[in-house]
Amino acid sequence: MDKHIMKWLFITTIPLLLISLSYQLGYIHYNNNWKQIILNFVPFNPHNNKNNSISKDIDLDIMRPFDSPIPATPNAPFPISTDKYCDIVCGFGRGSSELGIPTANVEISELTTELNALDFGVYFGFAHLKTVEGKETAIVQRKDGRNVSYNYGNQLVVENGDLDVIPMVLSMGKNPFFGNEFKTVELHILHKFSNNFYGAEVKFNILGYIRPELDYTTAEALIQDINTDIEIAKKVLKTPEYSKFKEQIAN
Ligand code: ADP
Ligand code: RBF
Ligand code: MG
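A: This is the predicted complex of the input protein with riboflavin.
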């Protein structure tokens, strides 16, 4: 065969083979973005610390290529905790209506600098709700002008465990799937509540990082990844090394 054709065949097929191999090995994910693909290969990415990892104890088929290994005990900078109870505010209401996964949005100006400085992404930890006493139910406007009713947590029930310290997954970022222009910090608390609790307060700690914030082509893919985040968080937070951090926010 002609030398030039051989050369060009070689130049074009090798990158294609590499891309397909990366896909097979799981380095490229159908929802992934280029930043994350590159981060997977960067040895000094702080989230790629593979020492002291308990990820091997988590079913491997639930860990995704872009997940960080989770250490056996919270590693620096975690645990990071709020320094007080923070207000739960309304967002666009899409968590429940479009994803079926409600998230309690926290007023970010009440968070510590350390907490606000964390990378955009998905984290896990514990949350502790508190009812605000002596407040009447109020109508508040969402950013898009729709009304929402704040009950300040007066429907939370001690007997249902609503006021216990509860495992949660947390998303920090601009929700690229919805194209938000500002950052939100949102907690999906792993508990079945009978009512919403807008205006209540929440104290929480962050004990580990799961993955970066990603963009998605479909809501189903985002929901599937959030469900995997939940499974990971549940498994890790059950271990004694993590569950002992419930105490940190008990009062
Ligand atoms: P928004 O955009 O206003 O935050 P969501 O659809 O995310 O709207 O719903 C959030 C509200 O749902 C929370 O503020 C809270 O009152 C309620 N809620 C009910 N169950 C949960 C839960 N398990 N975790 C977090 N919030 C919940
Ligand atoms: N939104 C995204 O656009 N990308 C994400 O990767 C993403 N991950 C999330 C992970 C968890 C555990 C939760 C609770 C939410 C996540 N969201 C993500 C946020 C979701 O878009 C948000 O909750 C809705 O927009 C409702 O506010
Ligand atoms: Mg929300």
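The longest helix spans residues 3-25. The CA atoms of residues 217 and 243 lie 35 Å apart.
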